[in-house]
Amino acid sequence: MNPLIENFQSALEHSFIDQTTESHDLYKAKLLVNQDQSGRMVLNDLLDELATCNEFFFAVAFITESGLLALKTVLADLAKQNIHGRIVTSNYLYFNSPKMFKELLKLKNVDVRITAMDGFHAKGYSFVHDEYETMILGSSNLTIKALKVNCEWNLKLNSLANGELIQSMKQNFEQMWSLAEQLTTSWITKYQMGYKPILNVQKVDTMEEPSSQIEVGTILEEVEFATKPILPNEMQKNALAEIQKMRDLEKSKAMVISATGTGKTYLSAFDVKAYQPKRFLFIVHQEQILKKAKEQFIKILDDDENKFGILSGNSTITTEKYVFATIQTLSKDSTLQTFAKNTFDYILIDEVHHAGAKTYQKVIDYFEPDFLLGMTATPERTDGYNIYEMFDYNVAYEIRLQEALKENMLCPFHYFGITDIQIDGQTINDKSSFNQLISSQRIDYILEKIDYYGHCGEKVRGLIFCGTKKEAHELEQLFNQRGFKTKALTGDHKITERDEVITQLEAGQLDYIITVDIFNEGIDIPSVNQVVMLRKTESSIIFTQQLGRGLRKAKNKDFVTIIDFIGNYDNNYLIPIALTEDSSLSKNSLRKKTMATKYLQGMSTIIFDEITKNRIFQSIESSQLNNAKNYKEAYQNLKNRLGRIPSLVDFIDQHSVDPVIIARYKGNYPAFLNWMKEDTPILNRHENELLTFLSNELLNGKRNHELLLIERLMVNGTLERQEYQRELERLHYSFDEQTLKSVERILSLKFFTQKEREKYGELPVVILSDDIYSLETSMKESIQNNQWFKQCVLDIIRTSFKRSESYQLNEPLTYNEVYGRKDVCRLLNWENNETGTMYGYRIKYNTCPIFVNYHKDDAISNDVKYEDELIDQHTLLWYTRPKLNFSSKEVKEIMNYEESGLAIHVFVQKEVGGDPEFIYLGRAYPKIETAKELIKKDKNGKDQNIVSMEMTLEKAVPLETYDFIKQK
């Protein structure tokens, strides 16, 4: 029987008859919902299908700009491959806006028609692949809510081309298509003239309910405040309660960490209103922030405007109750000395991460308020100053970007990482000349992309961040010559000039402000609906600040478009760090988050085009993430936050560096602390060796069996072997007799090479006698006599258990996670660490791990340069080592895998010379009928016998992993 038909039959049986039937994931019927157990959304499957299809058609009643925007990058990539699609939609209920229809016309590889069918309410998506076709049918329209957030049910079905269901759907679509009208500019003009929306599109796509009250953070700048009271949003309510708790505990200082755009100023105004100070002082580093803050406080406090004063430059105050001061003016002796130390009973420092400066310290040391509040979105410092200590480590409340997005506190954003232009065969990079940056060719490219990705609403109000003042001024001229209205703003402009230009942008008199860094923080322009980044990312903090300029909510603003032109820069790895708030310093973690962007909460999306994604991978690979400077900075930031020496588990709890990286850097964590010049208790030589063993071999959480046994022995002294088995069973850890023996060999150190045993002290950690486990004597004595050593061991155990949450411990190996060769030897229960002799594959103990280096170096030293290849998401083309044929013992063992029960496991590494870890692609099964005896040339040009065969992977390689591996 045709293997493809076999696969479909098993998939049908699995999906509709018996779910225990083994089947290829690729062909199974699936229910698609938003936020399933793996975090996937309907959008993920739609993007996956688009990225791999040869053609497609959609029949959807309702489409929003935001929903369409989420597909634009993959549609642009398809256009480069000359892959076309068709969409049938409608004017039903006037839901679809004229602007959305204009956006559809920008899709050069998509034909669109409008059906006049009465009551058209279809929601179907069809994709043609090489060997099969896919349908997604259900409840999801092409809106961002339906694709990411709403409770939706969609059935994903696969069919061969001749299947009745797919043919019926195609016939129905072709009938609709033939009767529908072509979408044209003239059709849109006519539609716009009679456009009378019955449904509120914004309500459907953002679920904003009408209210008789205003919740801060929704639409503040453009409502009639005289008629509606202003109330705190949910974040602010929670934060206010926590700040009050601090005061109830008689704390005189507190700090709030809140993402840009979440309403920190309004929050502080609400707190001041509750506190009712006799006099209040607001301190910040920019005069522009002062004026906006004063306006917001007046709205909340509802007090006489004459009680509010500004102390900045030439502005002075006398007896005003509420004083808003710049630090530059306030810190002058001539100003500061005019106030008594206890003048203000409540002082607020905004953007408090600047407070390490001498000017701030001078002011803070001078005043004696009853309560001091600090607010910031970015408390992390690179200069070593401890902002947390300034506030006695009293963090009243914290909400970061991801959580704020989840709570719908920020305007949803669609981030597009797109490759910058190539000029004379070279992509824009660090060495690009100024003339290249402002060339007409690049300007044309920029304008093409910002038009394609667009913006919310009828008129753009954009910010463009570029690299230099000279570039900003030149871009102003070039954009204006092309018909845009733009102004360049730099640090050379006065505050009054900046204010005037911002007012012009908000009034619609300007299209863009072109700037260099001065809008990184503190500037509030809620109407911004497009942010364009034309410079390399120097800092993840600055990147986030610039991104945040567009995240304020505003009336008639459903989303903001972020367009990042990514050149060939070494530090592109900072982009996923900024977007994901990943501080792990783990290259694997960053790769995974670049591969799959489903981590983003709410209605926002992050999409990289294919070239950019590969460029970021290259940047991650070549980056110096794991260096002393980064370790010191991360450690100091965590210590500053905690106000004490962190434990290893703190690094996980506080979302900091991967503790495995920290612990291994100097052998073990106490050694790292000594390197950081921390004063810690003394460990003897063997205690150091034991901690090095636990840190290097067991801390990673890939199997908790060994540390579980140590933990129980630390508590009970001894443990019967059967009792240990029952404990493994209770925790649903995978085990059998071979696993138990493996654990015993690991803890006796017999598993390791002689060199490793010497490194780890040679003595066993655990002893088994008469089926009873106990700790080795010196280990037991150290735990009893050295509290610091015991504390370090327990910390390793707790950290490993937390880290193991990323792994499925009911199986030896976790699909799509990474493993080194030594991990594989251990987890497949091999008697010894055979890393040094394993190389491409090895058959032992009825297991056969295969390690594939996917992209080989031309100078590879193997006799034959292997051509292993993922043919598709389910199939690996694999080659044996040289000098083998069908009669060779190991070839026979592999081809007779069914009879012997040989378990074949596939691990793939993208680049030779990268991190020594491989992505686990699961079990594999040889397709015997594809096996071939071949003759290949070795590096010396001599003929070598070799066997090739296709292997079917038990689970389909996730598309993001598949694309990552295949990209060159």
Automatic annotation (TrEMBL):
Q: Which superkingdom?
A: Bacteria
Which Gene Ontology MF annotations are present?
A: ATP binding; DNA binding; hydrolase activity
Domain (Helicase ATP-binding) spans 245-397
* Coiled coil, from the record: none
Q: Which Pfam families match?
A: DUF3427, DUF8090, Helicase_C, PLDc_2, ResIII
Q: Which SUPFAM superfamilies match?
A: P-loop containing nucleoside triphosphate hydrolases (SSF52540), Phospholipase D/nuclease (SSF56024)
**What InterPro entries does UniProt report for this protein, alphabetically?**
DUF3427 (IPR021835), DUF8090 (IPR058403), Helicase/UvrB_N (IPR006935), Helicase_ATP-bd (IPR014001), Helicase_C-like (IPR001650), Helicase_Restrict-Modif_Enz (IPR050742), P-loop_NTPase (IPR027417), PLD-like_dom (IPR025202)
Residues in domain Helicase C-terminal? 448-611
Got a GO cellular component term for this one? cytosol
Q: Sorted alphabetically, which PANTHER family does this protein's record hold?
A: ATP-DEPENDENT HELICASE IRC3-RELATED (PTHR47396:SF1), TYPE I RESTRICTION ENZYME ECOKI R PROTEIN (PTHR47396)
How is this protein named in the record? Helicase
